[in-house]
Amino acid sequence: MALMSEVITLIHSIVYSVYLLFLPGWLEDAALFAAIDNSINAVSWSEWQPLKDRHPGALKDIYENQKDFIENFMAQQFLFEKQWKRVRSHAQKLGISIMGDMPIYVGYHSADVWANRKSFLLDKNGFPTFVSGVPPDAFSKTGQLWNSPLYDWKSMEADGFAWWVKRIKRALDLYDEFRIDHFRGLAGFWAVPSGSEVAMFGSWRAGPRNAFFDALFKAVGRINIIAEDLGVITEDVVELRKSIGAPGMAVLQFAFGGGPGNPHLPHNHELNQVVYTGTHDNDTAVGWWQSLPEEEKQTVFKYLPQVSNLDVSWALIATALSSVARTSMVTMQDILSLGSSARMNTPATQKGNWKWRIPSCVSFDSLSLEEAKLKELLTLYDRL
Predict the structure, then answer these.
(1) Active-site residue flag, 112
(2) Fewest beta carbons within 10 Å, which of 113, 168, 176, 287?
(3) Is 382 among the catalytic positions?
(4) Is the pTM value of this prediction over 0.85?
């Protein structure tokens, strides 16, 4: 009720009226999409005749019929933006940078695809011809089938990658820097025929490569991007990342198999890199350790003699912070030494993901021991 009261007050304010004069195109599309989705019982926008094709008359009707919904939707977005700017401003005063995370693809049933069909590989009826995924890897023997529509890079290049430029500008409104997930898809991407049940029967296609970043940097200037370069990484991916100066990634949970040449081992880390104890796609350090094959455990014992079953989380945290890599990332789950029940995401699964939150019984005032340990390591490795 408090939120709705604030939204209603906001709708009648001068500052909100000014905001509407400069309404971002993405917000108008998102509000219309949400209103239609809220009023039509359909699986996806492809069933929204005649709204599927965005006929002006049909859009005008939905706006008039769903005016209250649309106004509330946009006001809530404005309210979030107002609150977020306060958070970001406070963080900047404390010398804290906020890093975002940008998935390379968007879902089919989204305002992005509905409002920008020419930017995606769709047939004349609006259905995907190919969808996203990756070939078999450490996470899945049959590959990962993401099922997001693929970009029509030729069409995008023709208009200077305008949709992507808007997307990046929006990200810069929210974050100081951000990671592009599946960066390799900008060099070459895995295309799976639509309707496939597994991803393993796809094929590689060339991405936009430097043409993409040339257009992007021309539009927004040089920006801080972290490249998620995990999985099948070929030389063209490495060349693209280095050509734009973006740091890649090293993940300690991937480090202890494959011999001394494994790029995730600390002695192979590079300065222009971000090292993680584990990413959102990994188990927690405790969960990883409990399921690690005995052979790899022996390698861990040799490489990190301080490891024991009781302190594996903090052993990985210390190793990440001691790396030559310019940036180290540790998860709150590992700081709290939590097990697999606190895992954020399990790739190639549909349920139970992205639900973990810091337990309500944990207050920051109760973390004095963890705070002291973290501060000691940050001081020791000159990361304060």
Answers:
(1) no
(2) 176
(3) no
(4) yes
